[in-house]
Amino acid sequence: MSRIQLEYFPFRLNFKYPFRLSHTERTGTDNVYVLLKTENAFGWGECVFIPYYPETLETFKNLISKIELPENTEDISKYINVLKSNFSNTNFCIAAIDIALHNLHSNLTNTSIQEFYHIEEQSKKTSFTIGMSDDQEMEIKIADNPTMNYYKLKVNQSEVYRIIDTFERFSEKPFTIDANQGFTDRNEALKLSYKLADKGVWYLEQPFHKEDFESHAWLKARSPIPIIADESFQNYADLEKIVKSFDGINLKVMKCGGLAEGVDCLKRAKEMELKSIIGCMSESSVAINASKQIAPLADWVDLDGNLLITNDLFGDENYTHEFILEELKKGRN
Questions:
Q1: d(CA 159, CA 175)
Q2: What domains, with CATH codes, occur in the chain?
């Protein structure tokens, strides 16, 4: 195989609606697309730069200025592990390279990522996230997206019941709750968990601060539904730390540094009898489609980032590789 070459393209993903969590609001996400290519094939990767995480485009530029690309795609996991051991706090950026290497390998060998990891094909529907919204905004978002299988509602402690009541006025679909660390009162979270259980809700995600393992353990011992770690769980090394305080994890390829570790996390979580969600971080179809390949390993799927943005170049089948390249080069100039 000819030597692998790398190009990258900074890009701005724009949201269809302002995206509000319990602690922040934004209208889009900066990302970078990575193109790995040989004489015979190419592979795309992607990472996003979330304001409340430390990585930026400068982090990415610094990383690629110091690394050597592998000679081939035969042992992606080994190569990625070397990067992680040599460059701390760069998992998002490493994820872009990991995804691109997997995509390149698939194109070179005509083998899917599922086949590469011996994952049995299984179709699972994704949730659709509704960021914290007033009543009118929520009505619009539901009306614009009526065919979703189920919804994830972003909440905080003060507005959770208004949000649930409003959602149920406009939809009879199932929903789950993600508090994004928005609770401080244990008893309020426990009260909510019982109300959610009565409604058939599958899980409650990250009610307390990410470092408050004691409150999560207290709630886990009393809640009738699973308590899922998101911000408290980043990668494989966290599994032993969170198992006493949570019933499950939200695995995101950005946080753990790519598909290779993502597969290991989901398999190990199952061995530990932890429930699992495979989630995303407002990514486009490049990272979302890669994550879908390992989604059969998870209990629930929350891969809707591409559905929340207006300018997903990789989400339109009519866009050719050449057209996408030209559009990305425009943004770089």
A1: 16
A2: 5-115+313-332 (3.30.390.10), 122-308 (3.20.20.120)
